Amino acid sequence: METKNIMIVGVGGQGSLLASKLLGQLLVAQNYDVKVSEVHGMSQRGGSVVTYVRYGDRVASPVIDKGEADFIVSFEQLEAARWLEYLKPGGQIVTSTQQIDPMPVITGVMAYPENLIEKMRAAGAKVDALDCLSLAKQAGSAKAVNIVLMGRLSHYFDLPEEAWMAALEAVVPAKFLELNKKAFVMGKNA
To answer: pLDDT tens string for the chain (190 positions)?
Structure first.
């Protein structure tokens, strides 16, 4: 199997590390060679962050170059647009419709860009946009946006829900497991 590439992008503190661990666990359990990068960016300060998950028969490096991402999973619209050039032709964006103002918007230097979903589609990207924050809150915690996104991403994988649940059980602390399972199902069924 040729190597597949997933970028997880967002803002520090949104749970991209847990999302990448979940994907890594899921794919290792399916007997793929998997490489997961560390979080890159200002994750401690609410800045832009990216992690890479690469899997296949044999994966040499965890790094994804421009035009190579099969999937971009984004916690926030502007981050999806920021990393768009990494998406390969025919690749898929799965994004939350949430908008988190970056520092230039907070300070009033710039305005948050309008119509980002439409602009990405106009640029030729396939965009699956979902209000993951509302679904996470319905599941029991706004912090479960990452798992709602993983549920949505599961649509693009030919793997049974049981495999995803087993991966959740392996990476989520027991006291948060039921909430995260609910968030996953809500994202999957949205």
So the answer is: 899 999 999 887 678 889 999 999 999 999 999 999 976 665 555 677 899 999 999 999 999 999 999 999 999 999 999 999 999 999 999 999 999 888 888 899 999 999 999 999 999 999 999 999 999 999 999 999 999 999 999 999 999 999 999 999 999 999 999 999 999 999 999 9
Entry pTM: 0.93
How far is the C-alpha of 170 from the C-alpha of 32, rounded, in Å? 17
Q: For residue 50, list its beta bridge partners.
A: 9, 40
Tokens representing 187 are: 């994202």
Using an 8 Å Cβ cutoff, are 34 and 27 in contact? yes
Terminal CA-to-CA distance of the chain, rounded, Å? 30
How large is the angle between the packed helices 161-171 and 16-29, nearest 10 degrees? Answer: 120
Tell me how far apart the alpha carbons of residues 75 and 149 are, in angstroms, rounded to a whole number.
Answer: 8
